[in-house]
Design brief:
PH-domain like, four-stranded antiparallel β-sheet, 160 residues, elongated, single chain
Length: 160
């Protein structure tokens, strides 16, 4: 099976957002809540003030959410325009391996190098490491049936 497509900044940003939500969101929420609880403990140590508690909690939550949003937004700017992350890809999926050719690089990965397949809203992600994956945009498939066939083929090759 051969696929040909372009990876742009938005594709890369969407991957980082997907990866963050799947792997880090729960931990970040936990630490955010822990920070607010610790802040309230120290602010209300001697005397409880409901107004100060509500305002400081809201400010802390807004700042925390803004920092997460800014961090995710900035990942779009990480790849260089003339680097190897963005640009055209020709990928071939055979029974033996995956071949990915780009303007400046060419990789061949055995199926045992694929750790897992994740099915996102607009992409398939073939993880080759903890935070590194082949990004396959679903826009390259003409029909939903082609997407399903691709997914079934990949799942048949990936060792669980």
């Amino acid at each position: 099976m051969k696929l040909s497509f372009d990876i742009n900044r938005q594709d890369y940003a969407d991957f980082n957002k997907f990866h963050f939500i799947k792997t880090q969101l729960k931990r970040r929420i936990f630490f955010g809540v822990l920070t607010i609880v610790a802040l309230q403990f120290f602010l209300n140590k001697e005397r409880f003030d409901l107004t100060a508690t509500i305002i400081s909690s809201l400010v802390c939550a807004v700042v925390y959410c803004f920092l997460i949003y800014r961090s995710l937004s900035s990942t779009k700017n990480i790849p260089q325009d003339n680097g190897t992350v963005l640009g055209h890809r020709d990928m071939e999926f055979s029974d033996i391996n995956i071949t990915c050719k780009a303007e400046k690089t060419s990789t061949v990965s055995d199926w045992n190098a694929i750790k897992k397949l994740e099915n996102g809203k607009n992409y398939f992600y073939l993880y080759v490491d903890t935070n590194m994956a082949y990004i396959i945009p679903k826009r390259v498939f003409a029909t939903v049936n082609e997407q399903d066939n691709f997914e079934q083929f990949i799942l048949s090759k990936v060792k669980r």
